[in-house]
Specification:
Elements (H helix, E strand, L loop, with lengths): L1 E2 L4 E7 L5 E10 L4 E6 L5 E6 L4 E7 L5 E3 L4 E2 L4 E6 L5 E6 L4 E7 L5 E3 L4 E2 L4 E6 L5 E6 L4 E7 L5 E9 L4 E6 L5 E6 L4 E7 L5 E9 L4 E6 L5 E6 L4 E7 L5 E9 L4 E6 L5 E6 L4 E7 L5 E3 L3 E2 L15
Antiparallel strand pairs: 1-2, 2-3, 4-5, 5-6, 6-7, 6-8, 9-10, 10-11, 11-12, 11-13, 14-15, 15-16, 16-17, 18-19, 19-20, 20-21, 22-23, 23-24, 24-25, 26-27, 27-28, 28-29, 28-30
Amino acid sequence: MTNQTANTVSQYTIGTNGVLMAMATPTVPAGGQPIALTVDPTGKYAYAVNFNGGTVSQYAIGANGALTEITAAVGAGHSPNFVAVDPTSKYAYVANSGSNTVSQYAIGANGALTEITAAVTAGNSPASVTIDPTGKYAYVANLASNTVSQYAIGANGALAQITAAVAAGNWPTSVTTDPTGKYAYVANLSDGTVSQYAIGANGALAQITAAVNAGNRPTSVTVDPTGKYVYVANFSGRTVSQYAIGTNGALTEITAAVTAGTSPTSVSVDPTGKYAYVANRDSNSISQYAIGVNGALTAMAIVPNTSPSGIVVTYAPTH
């Protein structure tokens, strides 16, 4: 988990009851204002984007889950906001909100990033990037353009725009796809909604139905590993909205949103689909939830943390 004001990444193990426990070395250094974090699909490497530093910190994940910096942080664009890795663990992509671009990297045998080619143009203030499960397409939520840019991923990992950006709601701030690669979801910060799309055979997005309501200023959206449920962290609402995914990809609220801490910025589900975790930036805490058989969240104990921002949960690495 990234800690914005402390310039660190916190590390935890997960108990059999889903409760987070700090590792013996509770934090490792990152760059200036680390804001988002991802882990490659093998669980061997982790990457943190440093908003103020304009860099990406790179880590190897040990057998016990602890992080060790691989090499010096690699340069990104201006004000990088988010990082994603493709399903093959060969490529990484960073949304740069200040330079309106997406940086593109090859992942070396030791996990180190090397820029493939010049950053590709996105919309205004790209806030989030995600890769579909097939590894063929990338999607970028452009906060100031109210759009989602759509790209095909070439054989060398380079991005090429598929078609014009598709409309989203006001201030799209987070984008994700479901595990089947059939659907995409976008959290719209300003109008408090989640846009819903079907992914076409060529990767192009088509709106399924009207955007569904979320809470006040939704800032993060994720799909659980089963592809049955969607969770949205509502920054100003201090809640997490919960949805079931229908057979056509449309979202239906399961039950009322559950309470989180102050300024929840990120939500993540563990690989078993049993637990969800939310980073509460301004209450310096992590909310923990058990996921019921119908997808509904039940709050567990709150864990203290320092200015948490990006959170990701992974299995032990497959070395």
